[in-house]
Amino acid sequence: MTTENEDQRPERSEQTHPRAILTNPEALTNPSAEDEANAMRPPSLNPDEDLLEDFPPDSEDVDLVHCRITSIPALGLQKLTAVLRLCLRQNEISRIEGLECIAGTLQDIDLYDNAIGHMTRDLEVLVNLENLDLSYNDLKHIKNLEKLVKLKNLYLASNRIGTIEGLGTLVELKNLEMGANKVREIQNLENLTKLEELWLGKNKISEIKNVSMLSNLKILSLPSNRLTKLSGLDGLNNLEELYVSHNAIEDLSGLENTPNIKNLDVTHNRLTSIKGIEHLSHIVDFWASENQLSSFKEVEDVLKDKAELETVYFEANPLQLMGPATYRNKVRLAIPHIKQIDATFVTAN
């Protein structure tokens, strides 16, 4: 979920919790939109099969990935007395239910890639939950999460959600991932002041707004949306990574109050200039391929003094297309300390 240089340009750091990773949100697809007639699905679980027979009652980590499970109650979870993490990825579960017997201990539940269409009231008993992954399901609305006040990580990527809602009580939330949905507006985040990562790639968002109160935000990811400008970023003084590739942005104004950006991805927009980032003295990676940039002098004027800059991507710009044989040397002359140009590391002379 890959662009040409995914291995060189990861969007996120490693997480210990298995989850949907949006290194390239524009490539995401929703399984609900695929041709189910052609999908290879395992047969249903034999009702006499006990998937928990190998797990002692005091097991803290229960992993049942791709086990043909259609019903959570049928698992007999009541035998587990100390489970902290329950992973039910890639099954055929259609309803969230039967979890009250482990609600007292459960901190992490992974229901990635099932067939869940609703967030039922059964979620309300999971008051100790810190991590919830419902990515790759068939959800249309965010509901019944109000009592999950300890939640820190919420993954809802690749569903059919149209509105950011129902999150007002989740004041401990640090990471919200909603890439590949149908969101048109950034809203209802004002209480999430501890949020550090917001992933909204591949939606239908046309304007960055209602994020200025997120003063702890470090990562904002909005690739493959409908943005035409960078705006609404006031107050994000701690922002370190901004991903806005595959939009229709025409200039880099609007970053005046984000001085701590280290990674900036503006690949595949409508830029003719990189003016507007002169003040980003901590920038390390600048990805600007597939725009209309043509001036090596401007590259030098804007980036030569950026001592922490290590990587630039300018391929598929007039800079590269009009003189591919000399392109890399000209970039090196413009930024003598650069370590990587596009996907290739710079070798010492």
TrEMBL record:
Q: Which UniProt keywords apply?
A: Leucine-rich repeat, Repeat
> Which stretches make up the U2A'/phosphoprotein 32 family A C-terminal domain?
324-342
Q: Which domain of life is it from?
A: Eukaryota
Biased composition range(s): Basic and acidic residues: 1-17
Q: Which SMART domains would you find in this protein's record?
A: LRR_SD22 (SM00365), LRR_TYP (SM00369), LRRcap (SM00446)
Q: Its GO CC terms?
A: nucleus; PTW/PP1 phosphatase complex
Keyword ATP-binding recorded: no
Gene Ontology BP terms: positive regulation of mitotic metaphase/anaphase transition
Asked whether the keyword Mitochondrion is assigned, the reply is no
Region entry Disordered, spans: 1-54
Q: Which PANTHER family match?
A: LEUCINE-RICH REPEAT AND IQ DOMAIN-CONTAINING PROTEIN 1-RELATED (PTHR46652), LEUCINE-RICH REPEAT-CONTAINING PROTEIN 9 (PTHR46652:SF3)
Name by which UniProt lists this protein: U2A'/phosphoprotein 32 family A C-terminal domain-containing protein
Organism field: Arthrobotrys oligospora (strain ATCC 24927 / CBS 115.81 / DSM 1491)
